[in-house]
Amino acid sequence: MLRKTALLLLVMMVFSSAVFADEPEIISAEPEQSNEAELREKALDDKAAELEKLSETLSKRESELSQKEKDFISRSAILAGKSKEIAGTSAVLLGRETQVNSREKAIMSREATLARREMAFAQESQKFTTAAEALAQREADLAKREADLANRESALNEKISAKEAADKLTAREEDITKREAALTEREATGNRLKALEAELNERNEKLNSREQEVTNRENSVAENEKKISESEAKVKAQEAEVSKRESELTAQEKALDDKNKKLEENSSSLISREAALVNREAEINRKADEIQEMENLIKELPAFDPNNSTEAAMILTYKIPAQKRRELIAMQRAAYQKYSSNRITQAFEDYVAAAEAEPSNYLAAYWAGLAAERLRNRHDDALLWANKALEINPDYKPAQDLKNRLENPARNRRRSK
Q1: CA neighbours within 13 Å on the CB side: how many for 250?
Q2: Averaged pLDDT, groups of 10, the chain, 417 residues long
Q3: 392 and 262 in one domain?
Q4: How many domains does the chain have?
Q5: What is the enclosing helix (H) or strand (E) of 240?
Q6: Do the domain assignments include residue 305?
Q7: pTM over 0.85
Q8: CA distance 383 to 373
Q9: Largest CB tally within 10 Å, which of 73, 386, 398, 403?
Q10: Inside any domain, residue 23
């Protein structure tokens, strides 16, 4: 465009050298614009390097948190093993209670001593029940916290996607910087074209005023005017094109500002993400302390014997997922509340539902038989559920006793008399 303008001026100077003034020297601003573009590009590169470094730091912290989560899972497995030890100890307590009952009739002279021992045993059983309830509550809390941790991980993945988008924005920002340099050059060209247009109009007026005085040069001047008109048309077309490009570049500049704002927001989100990771690390450390405290508590509690215990906490000995164990324990306790309040039919239905929910739940099958035994005309159902419990665990002594009692009702009545 500048070359065309210079050629136009040269033609005009040749044909009207006596009238036209010398063209002012135009100093190019390209070096300064180039330096400014290089500075902006360098600043953007530094910012991109800083964001990359921050991303590497966040990835490292995520790796550390993943390791701590693995430690948390291993401690949970150890906790499940120690819960099995609780089941064994509970069976020992039940065995001692049976021995005390069998010796009660033979040693009436030691009745006072036996009563004190029974009272101590009741206190220990109460402590164990309270501890088991606390253990189940803590397991529920841990499940809730695990869900919260999964939600936070999902949010973290979304922020990582935002970081990738920010990298793309950085690349596009570099391209827009180059376009800004081109826009600056075009703006300067547009300003020079406006000045040339004003000067051209002024010279046209002078040419018209001198038209009568240069009759001898009319043909050459007419030809020159034709050339000038064509040049003017070209200049106007170029000016229209420049105006259109200026509008497009103005819109691109606005889009660049919006992208710069988004880039700043992404930087702020990365800082927030780092703070969230720090909080998450503190939460995992707190969970580890809670697990250690729970482990210390379990060491002091008696164990369950899966072949003798009838308590809900014995479900902890099942080799099923932890969430499934928590659900079965909740169902067992709800059914026992109805059973203890003499709502036997409802309790029987709940025990049946718990047994059907997990094929290995012989505890629920035993209690379903026990509830059916107390219902009228449900003797066959009671025997059926006792047999189901023994099919799952043939060594389960409470189910053996229930089956013996149901199959030999007359002998059990004579023995009770």
Answers
A1: 7
A2: 62 53 44 73 81 77 77 75 69 71 70 74 73 76 78 78 76 79 78 79 76 72 74 77 77 77 74 77 65 46 77 90 93 96 96 95 97 93 96 96 88 46
A3: no
A4: 2
A5: helix 218-299
A6: no
A7: no
A8: 8
A9: 386
A10: no
